[in-house]
Specification:
This protein has ten helices and five strands, in the order E-H-E-H-H-E-H-H-E-H-H-E-H-H-H. With 251 residues, the chain is an alpha/beta fold. It has one domain: Rossmann fold (3-Layer(aba) Sandwich), CATH 3.40.50.300. Helix 2 packs antiparallel against helix 3 and helix 4 packs across helix 7.
C-alpha cells in the first residue's frame, strides 16, 4: 500500500504517468496538468523522448536502423537527463509540480523487454528521484493493440520491435513486444513502485479515478499557489491570441 508522502515547498512534487500504448495516459496527463494549473499552482508538463538536444541523433539512428537495445537505452537516458536538468529539476527547486508523461519506468519496461539488464537501467536513471506518485494506466493488451493498429497499414520499425528479430511480421512482433512490456509493468505494480489505474471507460470516468488517487496520495496544499498577478501573466502568455497583430492593427 503506497503511503501518502509528506511534501515540503522546497522539494516540489513529481507526478508520473505510465501505460501501454493506447491506454490514454497522455490525454489523462494533459487533463491532470490543466486541472492543477486551474488550481493556480505552479506546474510543468514534460513528455518522454522530447529533448531537442537529443532529437537529431535519435532520428538518424532510427532512420538508419542502427539502434541496438543498449544504444536505444542510452539515447533515451540522455534525453531524460537533458529534460531533468532543464525542465524537471528547475521546477522542483522552486517547489512546483511536474507532470511527467512517462518516467524511468518506461525505460525499465521497454528496454527491459528488449533484454537490457534492469540493474543497468536503474543505475543510468539513478540521478532522478522516485516520483511522489506514478499512475499506471492499465488496459487489456488486446484493447491497446486494437486502438493502435486500427486504420494503420503498418507499424514503424522500432515501434513494432522488428529490431529484435522475433518475427518479420510487424503486427505479430508488436504483440510480442507489448506482451513483454506488460509483464514488466505488472511486476512494478506488485513492487508498489507504480499505482494501477483502471483505464477502461470514458475519458471523464478515468479522469475521475485519477483525481481521486491524486487527492488520496498527494497533498496539493503543500504547494504555494502562483501569485495572482503572475498567474494572469502566465495565462496571457499561454494564450493563442496574437497581441502583436492587435497592436499593429491599431497603429
Amino acid at each position: 500500500m503506497m503511503m501518502k508522502p509528506s511534501h515540503s515547498a522546497d522539494r516540489g512534487i513529481i507526478i508520473a504517468v505510465e501505460g501501454m500504448d493506447g491506454s490514454g495516459k497522455s490525454t489523462q496527463a494533459m487533463l491532470l496538468f490543466n486541472w492543477i494549473r486551474a488550481l493556480g499552482l505552479p506546474v510543468h508538463h514534460t513528455e518522454w523522448n522530447s529533448s531537442p538536444v537529443v532529437a537529431a541523433a535519435t532520428k538518424v539512428g532510427k532512420e538508419t536502423k542502427r539502434l541496438k537495445p543498449q544504444t536505444f537505452h542510452l539515447i533515451h537516458a540522455a534525453d531524460f537527463a537533458d529534460r531533468w536538468s532543464k525542465q524537471i529539476e528547475p521546477m522542483l527547486e522552486v517547489g512546483g509540480i511536474v507532470i511527467c508523461d512517462r518516467y524511468k519506468f518506461t525505460a525499465i519496461a521497454r528496454d527491459g523487454a528488449r533484454g537490457v539488464d534492469r540493474k543497468t537501467i536503474e543505475k543510468n536513471y539513478s540521478f532522478a528521484r522516485e516520483p511522489d506518485i506514478t499512475l499506471y494506466f492499465d488496459i487489456p493488451p488486446e484493447v491497446g493493440y486494437d486502438r493502435i493498429v486500427t486504420g494503420r497499414p503498418t507499424l514503424k520499425y522500432y515501434e513494432a520491435g522488428l529490431d529484435m528479430g522475433w518475427t518479420f511480421d510487424p503486427f505479430e512482433s508488436y504483440k510480442i513486444l507489448q506482451g513483454k512490456i506488460k509483464v514488466i509493468y505488472d511486476t512494478l505494480v506488485e513492487e508498489a513502485r507504480i499505482v494501477r489505474v483502471d483505464a477502461l471507460g470514458t475519458v471523464a470516468e478515468v479522469h475521475s479515478r485519477v483525481r481521486a488517487l491524486i487527492s488520496k496520495h498527494i497533498d496539493l496544499n503543500s504547494i504555494h499557489p502562483i501569485d495572482e498577478n503572475d498567474r494572469t501573466a502566465e495565462m496571457i502568455r499561454m494564450s493563442s491570441f496574437d497581441w502583436g497583430s492587435l497592436e499593429e492593427g491599431d497603429a
